[in-house]
User: What shape does this take?
Amino acid sequence: MANAPLRGCPTCGTRVKDVDMGMRDYRWVSPSLPGNVAPSDIDSILERNGHFLVQEYKPSGAALGMGQRILLKQLVRKGFDVWVVWGTGPVEVGVMDRYGDVKFVDNMPREKLAERVAEWFAQATKDV
Assistant: This one.
């Protein structure tokens, strides 16, 4: 649904009417943009020495919306690493490619994901 009202938190599913989403309910800006263009949030971004790791969190089994997929694909093409993480623990983690696809998903506990983020950070620290 293009520019549909935000009905709930994309991560936990809490209904908007049950929580004050404030500025994160993007309906305030969408009418000012052309067509079906709407803002997207980034759930997690980590920078080290000009390297960027973006993580997008989704409920188990949820698909990326078309607009969000286009945004994340463009970030990959700009050199960002984009990981899509499904679930809350254990999680499924996939790396997005430059075509906007996640072709391989690895199942792991949150602790393992934390280790992978730390490994990413250590490698980015070496790349000076």
In short: Strands lie at 44-48, 51-58, 81-86, 91-96, 102-108. Residues 6 and 101 are 25 Å apart (CA to CA). The chain has two domains: 1-39, 41-126.
